[in-house]
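ok so for the tutorial part 2 we go from a plain amino acid sequence to predicted structure tokens. step 1 is just haveing the sequence, like this:
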Amino acid sequence: MKLTPSQKAANTRRQKIEAMAAAMGLQDDLKRKTRKPRKPMSAEQKAAAAERLKKAREAKGPTSSSYPEHIANLPDDAPLSVANVRQWIRSCKQELEMMKGWDKSSDAKERSAYLDVETYISNMEAYLRYGDWFDFRYGEKRESIMVRRCLAKAYDKDGNVKRNVGTFYDDLGLVWTKEMDARDRETRN
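step 2 — the prediction. this is what the tokens look like for a chain of 189 residues:
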């Protein structure tokens, strides 16, 4: 039987320890219990073990996902589905490998590009861990922009709703644009 490199290393270590113990007169202290090899299971025993394992798995119930429930239940064609985000992480890590050494570059643009990709990867990993998207962009190459959504309106001193360009407002049902903002300012003056 041919030994693997790790088995050879283990044998060499054991021989060195035994030689050192013999030189020190401690060879009796090195006696260890040897593990008997397991007997092969018969076909009936294998079938019984498989049945016990199946019964135990059924009793345990369905396995839970390691991702937050609201993102684990997203369909695969959703923009922020687990499958899509995992693919984006893989491609960004490959991109980061190509940028090797840019983090210590004297060129500020290279350092910035490296840090952008690194931060994007950590934000995607945080999304898979906690279920909250922290980045203002999404996609494999960060090509799409995340739209903010207003959950609670704020008002100015005159009682008018404060609105930000590029934010989705539930009361309007659309994203507030520059044109809408200019029109709103004209009507107030």
